[in-house]
Amino acid sequence: MEEEMIYFHCDHIGVAGTTDVAVKKRKTQGGHDIYEARCGIAMMGMTQMDEEEFKACNYDPFHPEFRDNYCEGRGPTPEKAIEALKKDMKETADSIWA
Fold first, then answer.
1. Are 60 and 36 spatial neighbours (Cβ–Cβ below 8 Å)?
2. Judging by beta carbons within 10 Å of its beta carbon (0-12, 13-18, 19+), is residue 73 exposed, middle or buried?
3. For residues 90 and 55, what is the distance between their CA atoms, to the nearest angstrom?
């Protein structure tokens, strides 16, 4: 009988999301719409906020009292903003090991 092996590949070693991805529509100084995506992150398992503080902010990285690390991305559509967020998260993870 052949044994099955499963491998997982992680592109963001050292960075983990602590919130859902949130996207908001913003206005640029020129009056154009732009989307901003944010996701709270823990770096090497460490956060700046405790669980009660996350709950008080409703796990929203846009909340005015959210004071933890987060990655962000901006784009002309929500999808492009999320793509930019993923790139920022990868760059953040890569910077840990540089």
1. no
2. buried
3. 26
Write the CA distances from 49 to 52, 87, 89, integer angstroms: 8, 24, 19
pLDDT tens digits along 52-87? 999 999 999 999 999 999 999 999 999 999 999 999
Structure tokens given for 80: 């492009």
CA angle 10, 45, 91 (to 5 degrees): 50
- Residues 23-48: pLDDT tens digits? 999 988 888 899 999 999 999 999 99
Tracing tokens 């967020």 back to the chain, one arrives at: 85
d(CA 40, CA 18): 5
Question: Are 83 and 90 a contacting pair, CB within 8 Å?
Answer: no
Measured CA to CA, the distance from residue 12 to residue 25 in angstroms comes to 26
Instruction: Please give the full DSSP string across 9-27, using - where no structure is assigned.
Output: --S-TTEEESS--EEEEEE
Contact call for residues 83 and 1 (beta carbons, < 8 A)? no
